[in-house]
């Protein structure tokens, strides 16, 4: 492993994990399969990323915590669903959100994990925390949505708002719009939500346009950077760095909460962006640097989407864990043989042999419109939101 040059002591990082989190299993054939979590933790362990780290074992969030975001009648519906069957009103029993035994308990456990991670930071025991089982960013107040039953991201943010934080920035790097979190805080100027995703005209859920800015006095605190299908590492990073750092300087967050979905990968079966494992690693290093510069190093990282269960997710999220812990894994590091043997029992797909796809991650920083394929999209976002923060969308210094 190589050092990142950062100074955070791994003892000041909380890693939420317990095998009980594998219980969030919508079905055996569902794309959001918990094998991705199992394989990630096994790969990180095999590479020594988690050496000496005592996992923070979560407990289910009690109803009053889940009800920070979700209405009580919806919790009742989730509890009843395994006994009573499909519930169209609450989007339970759909193809996306099939009913499964213990659905409430498993979903509350994911929320409990993200609250526990937030608590470690808020109470001063950690500067960073990560819950790769979290990131269920689509769930709405009264219904399941997009594979997500309860919205642990929003629950954790709400908890932080009641425990010493009044300027929180949520950054969502999933290929799908972070619609549930945006909806939860659309009128709350204490939370800046930034979602970078595939353009809603080309991908579910069809929201996340640059014109979605927040309501009332919170106008400008919902930020959407929508990118065209086929966007690669260099374009994604160019767009992200053209929009996000300037907003963070203006907003001055006390903590970053990030949803680190990896369904932006070029092999992902559910979307059409074209990032690599190397690109994901660059994203996490960027998030770490932004937290160091803008939020006194306070960073809560959550998982999210990602349906390349064997080739993409375990490598990308191992890089995430390593980045949070300042134990960066050399991209050329070979995949350990014992991990390959274990994964081979679960899939016939070819497995990766190293922690890289040998993809370059350098990019040309935005310095004004130059007809690069992502420039019209990033400029649309800058024009929509920058003036609301007192920033000039044409100023190439931001």
TrEMBL record:
InterPro entries: AcuC, HDACs, His_deacetylse_dom, His_deacetylse_dom_sf, Ureohydrolase_dom_sf. It comes from the Bacteria. Pfam families: Hist_deacetyl. Residues 30-323 form the Histone deacetylase domain. Residues 346-367 are annotated as: Disordered. Signal peptide: none annotated. The keyword Ribosomal protein does not apply. Keywords: Acetoin catabolism. Pathway: Ketone degradation; acetoin degradation. The keyword Acyltransferase does not apply. Belongs to the histone deacetylase family. This is Acetoin utilization protein AcuC. It comes from Actinomycetospora straminea.
């Amino acid at each position: 492993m190589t050092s990142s040059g950062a100074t955070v002591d791994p003892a000041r990082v909380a890693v939420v994990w317990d095998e009980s989190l594998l219980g969030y299993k919508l079905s055996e054939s569902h794309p959001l399969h918990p094998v991705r979590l199992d394989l990630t933790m096994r790969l990180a362990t095999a590479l020594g990323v988690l050496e000496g780290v005592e996992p923070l074992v979560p407990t289910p969030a009690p109803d009053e915590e889940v009800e920070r975001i979700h209405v009580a009648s919806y919790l009742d519906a989730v509890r009843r669903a395994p006994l009573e069957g499909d519930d169209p009103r609450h989007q339970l029993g759909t193809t996306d959100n099939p009913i499964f035994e213990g659905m409430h308990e498993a979903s509350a456990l994911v929320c409990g994990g993200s609250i526990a991670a937030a608590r470690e930071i808020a109470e001063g025991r950690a500067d960073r925390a990560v819950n790769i089982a979290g990131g269920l960013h689509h769930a709405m107040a009264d219904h399941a949505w997009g594979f997500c039953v309860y919205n642990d991201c929003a629950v954790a943010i709400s908890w932080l708002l009641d425990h010493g934080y009044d300027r929180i920035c949520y950054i969502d790097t999933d290929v799908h719009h972070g619609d549930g979190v945006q909806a939860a805080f659309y009128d709350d100027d204490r939370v800046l939500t930034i979602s970078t995703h595939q353009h809603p005209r080309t991908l579910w859920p069809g929201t996340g346009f640059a014109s979605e800015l927040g309501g009332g006095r919170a106008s400008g605190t919902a930020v959407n950077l929508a990118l065209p299908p086929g966007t690669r590492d260099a374009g994604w990073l160019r767009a992200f760095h053209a929009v996000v750092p300037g907003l963070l300087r203006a907003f001055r967050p006390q903590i970053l909460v990030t949803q680190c979905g990896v369904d932006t990968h070029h092999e992902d079966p559910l979307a059409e962006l074209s990032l690599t494992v190397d690109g994901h690693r660059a994203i996490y290093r960027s998030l770490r640097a932004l937290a160091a510069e803008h939020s006194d190093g306070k960073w809560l990282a959550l998982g999210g989407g990602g349906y390349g269960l064997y080739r993409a997710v375990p490598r990308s999220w191992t890089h995430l864990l390593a980045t949070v812990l300042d134990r960066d894994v050399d991209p050329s590091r070979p995949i350990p043989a014992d991990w390959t043997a274990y994964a081979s029992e679960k899939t016939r797909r070819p497995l990766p042999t190293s922690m890289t796809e040998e993809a370059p991650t350098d990019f040309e920083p935005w310095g004004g419109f130059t007809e690069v394929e992502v420039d019209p999209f990033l400029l649309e976002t800058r024009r929509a939101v920058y003036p609301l923060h007192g920033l000039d969308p044409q100023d190439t210094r931001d």
